[in-house]
Amino acid sequence: MTQTRDAFENRLRQIGAERYHDKHPFHHLLHGGRCSPEQVRAWVINRYYYQHSIPIKDAAFMSRVEDPDLRRIWRSRIEDHDGTDTNEGGIRRWLRLAEAVGLDRDYVASNRGVLPATRFAVDAYVRFVRDKTLLEAVAASLTELFAPKIHADRIQGLLKNYDFADDSSLSYFRNRLKEAPKDVAFGLSWVLDHADTQEKQDAAAAALIFKTDVLWSQLDALHAAYVEPGRIPPGAWVPGEGMALAKAS
């Protein structure tokens, strides 16, 4: 039976309440100041692979959109990450965080040392958005519904517990507090408008669950490789590799 608009929105929000990666043990360690410098660097390296893939994912989505109004609205997501003449962009802000934790910017941008599971999960998300229906692709982006809280918690936790944290190094998260709400307001409204049958509502909900799995699996890989001793897979970043010549404290 097709749910009402309000009931379906509550269903989507409940997925985040149960499955969003703010509940993962690695984030509890990170935000609580219990990650070593090496663990923070591993997180920065691997999360960069996700960040750099977001505009690729959005470009794949736009390549299938025939509605110019939808393309115009969606285009801002690419600009938020890649930047414009007046906006530095999220990718450059993330690389500034990498430098702040003592990593070489070019090393991080090369994506060398990314965990295999990170690469598999992120690439699966890009393929999902490229190959699934537009409804499923947009629904998968709705993890942004739950992002403002984790960004706020991260800013507070990093500022409190780590010497590298300041307005410059954390600018990515501060900007997402402004950018994400406009994206998710449109995306949520679009999904609610277009998921007008039970089959479509089920597909949209499954897409959001898939995306929470993508985010969760990245943290599982980090935790297994860098929190549990001796679990770094071949080819992944090894502490001491890719360091900047002038290390941040």
TrEMBL record:
Its EC number is 1.3.3.11. It comes from the Bacteria. It catalyses: 6-(2-amino-2-carboxyethyl)-7,8-dioxo-1,2,3,4,7,8-hexahydroquinoline-2,4-dicarboxylate + 3 O2 = pyrroloquinoline quinone + 2 H2O2 + 2 H2O + H(+). Pfam families: TENA_THI-4. Pathway: Cofactor biosynthesis; pyrroloquinoline quinone biosynthesis. Coiled coil: none annotated. The keyword Oxidoreductase applies. This is Pyrroloquinoline-quinone synthase. It comes from Sedimentitalea todarodis. The gene is pqqC.
